[in-house]
Amino acid sequence: MSKRFYLVSLGCAKNTVDSQSMASLLQEAGFEPTDRQKEADVLIVNTCGFIGPARQESLDTLRDLARHKKKHQLLVAAGCLTERYRQQVAQEVPGIDGILGTRRWMDIVDLVQQLRPGRKYPEPLYHLPETPTVGKDEKGVLRAAIQGASAYLKIADGCRRPCAFCAIPLIKGTAVSRPPEVILQEARILQDEGVKELLLIAQDTTDYGHDLGMKDGLATLLEGILREAPEIPWIRILYAYPGYVTDRLIEVMANHPQIVPYLDMPLQHAHPQTLRRMRRPSNMEWVYQTLAKMRAAIPNLALRTTFIVGYPGETEEEFQTLLDFVQEIQFDHVGIFTFSFEKGTASEPLGDPIPAEVKQERLARLAEVQERVSLARNQSYVGQIQPVLIEGFDRGIAIGRAPHDAPEIDGLVFVEGEAPVGEIVPVRITGAMTHDLTGVLVRP
């Protein structure tokens, strides 16, 4: 009788890819997945350690599993939190049998096979080498997370950017690109699986290939994917870095309808002084010029970005610059976060001087501005026929996404009546809400 595993994946889509890779290796070794905790022999939490609330969620999930763990069960803590805070996790969550760092997800089977249920270990067994292993010993597993008709494909891991507030380099190490030939092979596999949307992800997709000596690596990779997987209708780019959206990348996006007119480029702020304290690109002239260039070259371009409010030293004047910028640029989607103080980052000496209530008030003001913009952007689609990827059906309503909406983070399209799940269908947009749209299926 084969053993069963129960896996909880927390955090971002990049973590989801690692989780599905671990699941694939376990299944190859004879384990069976289960969504029932009580039935599992192995309990695994792929944790997130990016900011305080994410760490707390990871610890709470581990504590809950540890509290209800049976004698025959093993508990493994994996991922970002354990990579950086392994001792804290071991001390704060009694009952963990094994710890697996985010850079050693491929050792999940080796770790589980070393563990013995019911045995009291003086401390959890560790698999935590410090050296990055991306693209070197991934054991041939598909580095993608398939979710319905969409798939996240990881093209690199780690980050070499110096952002003062970010702990990712401390967790993931420097940027390491996966070999292009492997990525192209995986794109072909995903095409054969019938995937309709391919989402390219990394900590910084625009840095792809830098460590391999490639120039314009992302544009070159996209051209390869277009050639090798021509039947995937939608290709989407996430996590671009300001200053590295090149003219060639814009040209490739503009000339190939397969690449959806969408770009996610986290800017984090709009005031040069704030950006300098963040150790982020502060040339706002480049931002204005590049966004204008992209909109001129790519019709119906949808732009998503992310901002941090309440960063140390952010004055009311600096925040007002951000408000004005959001009103002027008219982003389709904006993610907003309050500053999270992280020990060990370059921003640690700045402390966390802005009161929580001020941060929340600024978040609310920025959200209010963006909601008006989002509603206006959505209203512009009313009357148009949009291709919509149908992802579900509930009580007479089909639910899907248009090209300007990425999964999980953006809006939905609610379509009257039945539509084939997993297919892209034409929908006439009939109504607009702040984040979502309504429509009717256009029948032949």
For the CA atoms, what is the radius of gyration? Answer: 22 Å
Question: Strand sequence of the main sheet, in spatial order?
Answer: 7-8-11-12-13-14-15
Main β sheet profile: 7 strands, mixed
Count of DSSP strands: 20
Enzyme class: transferase
GO molecular function: 4 iron, 4 sulfur cluster binding; aspartic acid methylthiotransferase activity; metal ion binding; protein methylthiotransferase activity; tRNA-2-methylthio-N(6)-dimethylallyladenosine(37) synthase activity
Pfam family, one: UPF0004
Main location: cytoplasm
Summarize the model shown.
The chain has 444 residues and is of the alpha/beta class. It has helices at 13-28, 52-67, 80-84, 86-92, 108-114, 168-172, 180-192, 217-228, 247-255, 272-278, 284-297, 316-329, 356-379, and strands spanning 4-9, 32-33, 42-47, 74-79, 98-101, 125-127, 144-147, 150-154, 156-157, 176-177, 197-201, 234-237, 259-264, 302-309, 333-338, 385-394, 397-401, 413-416, 424-432, 437-441. The strands form four sheets. Strands 7-8-11-12-13-14-15 form a seven-stranded mixed beta sheet. Strands 2-1-3-4-5-6 form a six-stranded parallel beta sheet, with helices on both faces.
How would you sum up this structure, described in words?
[4Fe-4S] cluster 1 binds at residues 12, 48, 80. It is found in: Cytoplasm. Belongs to the methylthiotransferase family. RimO subfamily. Residues 379-443 form the TRAM domain. Residues 3-117 form the MTTase N-terminal domain. Helix 2 (52-67) links the parallel strand 3 (42-47) and strand 4 (74-79). 45% of the residues are buried. Helix 7 (180-192) runs parallel beside helix 8 and helix 12 packs parallel to helix 13 (356-379). The protein is 34% helix and 23% strand. It has 444 residues and is an alpha/beta fold. It has three domains: 4-127, Rossmann fold (3-Layer(aba) Sandwich), CATH 3.40.50.12160; 144-379, pyruvate-formate lyase- activating enzyme (Alpha-Beta Horseshoe); 385-441, Nucleic acid-binding proteins (OB fold (Dihydrolipoamide Acetyltransferase, E2P), Beta Barrel).
